[in-house]
Thioredoxin family protein (Telmatocola sphagniphila), 203 residues
Amino acid sequence: MRTSSFLITALFSGIFATFSAAGEYNKVLKIGDKAPSFTPLPGTDGKSHSLEEWKDKKALVIFFTCNSCPTAEDYEDRVIRFTKKYSSRSVGVVAFCVNKIADDSMEKMKEKAEKKKFPFVYLRDDSQKIAKDFGASYTPEFFLLDQDRKVVYMGAFDDKNTEAEAKVNYLELATEALLKGDKIEKAETLARGCMIRYIRKRD
């Protein structure tokens, strides 16, 4: 009887530990986790970039996007304005594309970056490892990191895909709180957009 009780307790403890290891919506990370690092990855600017490049920034926004998602496209101007607004306040912004379809190729990424005059670095990861490490599921999906590069916010940019209808800018509120040393009231939200096109490995 004692053995059975022990096994049941151990089983539920293991299940609880599995679920508590991730966030409310993110299956990999939770708020307060150290953000995954990344080795040099190619950018649309013709250079390679690694996480160390932003080591002096007070905050860093990592987000996953692509060229082929209408929702991601709808957010481009909002992210451009955010980047320009916070660049003087020691906040870095880095975008990643991991989709492997033709519309999301490096060539197309370069065309997009040039057309929109992206003020942030736009990187490509053919291995898709960085997106998996962050537990990213959507384009766009945002992660705000503090100076210790711990995750302090993750999820959607704001509360509505249509900019005219958006009333709450989650990312901006979190960034302001972080820079002021205040508590981030809404630290995790559900990202929205197109699903990241992960390559499935067949047995």
Summary: The domain at 28-195 is CATH 3.40.30.10 (Glutaredoxin).
